[in-house]
Structures are given as C-alpha cells and as structure tokens.
Amino acid sequence: MKRRSCQQCGEALQGRIDKKYCSDQCRFLFNNQKKRQSEITIANVNQILRRNRSILKSFNPVGKTTIRKSLLLGQQFSLDFYTHIYRTKQGMVYYFCYEYGYAFAADEKVVLVTWQPYMNHPINQVMFQERFGNH
Ligand SMILES: [Zn+2]
Q: What gap in Å lies between CA 21 and CA 4, rounded to an integer?
C-alpha cells in the first residue's frame, strides 16, 4: 500500500483514504496558496492586456490608422494576448485588447481601429466594412 502524506507539509496521513491534509490548518494553507497562484496568473495576463491596450491607444488616438507592424512589435506588444476577435464578412480578423483593435494588412502593416457598438452583432459587419474599408 502506498504511503500517503499531507499535501501541505508532507506529514504521513492516517485514517480515511481520501484524506489529503494532516490538519485543518494545512488544508487552509494549501488552498490559500493555490488561490494566490491563480490570482498571480490572472494579474500577469491582465498586465499584458493592459500594456497591449495602451500601446494600441498610443498609436491610434483618433480611431483609425495604419502603421508598420514593426512599430507595434518594437513596443513589447504581445500578439498572443487579446480580449476578443472581430471577423468581417470578407474574412478579415481584428484582434482587440478591450476597445482597441488591430488587423494584419499587406506590406507588413497593421490597421488599428477602435471598437464600435455595432460590432456586437454580426449583421452589422457590413457597416464596419463601410466605415473602415477592406484592407
Ligand atoms: Zn500537514
């Protein structure tokens, strides 16, 4: 039979087979650490999203513009993190960090846009095309 030990302190466990901790204190400490680790993970992702948003905002003060992709990537911008996607009927994909979005365009460029209320419904993608064009 395998020796069981407390997940928190490693103390040998006796009694019920489903027991994981030697004491209530160890259970509390273990769960607290697990929760803290989750909070750290969430905070780290939030930090990346906030940085992305502020970089997009700095390049796009008026609502729509086109810049070189290298400008964005030279600013610690992370392509791996975004809050949501907006796909146009033509298949162009805009990645958003909160209300600031970008899409890859030809010639190593990116189109920067801001979120519009009508984007919440797919039927309004046509309006998005009319306003921002098809790149
Ligand atoms: Zn313990």
A: 10
Distance 30 CA to ligand 1 centre (A): 9
d(CA 16, CA 19): 5
Q: pLDDT tens digits for 69-110?
A: 999 999 999 999 999 999 888 888 999 999 999 999 999 999
Tokens describing residue 2: 């395998």
Interval between CA 102 and ligand 1 midpoint (Å): 50
With respect to residue 7, please indicate whether it lies within any of the assigned structural domains.
no
Domain enclosing residue 71, as ranges: 24-132
Query: Does residue 46 sit in helix, strand or coil?
Result: helix
Q: Is residue 15 part of a domain?
A: no
**Number of domains the chain is built from:** 1
| DSSP conformation class of 134 | -
Q: How far is the CA of 8 from the centre of ligand 1 (A)?
A: 5
- Say if 3 falls within a structural domain: no
pLDDT, tens only, 23-45: 999 999 999 999 999 999 999 99
**Ligand 1 center from residue 34 Cα (angstroms):** 15
Q: Report how far ligand 1's centroid is from the alpha carbon of 11 (Å).
A: 5
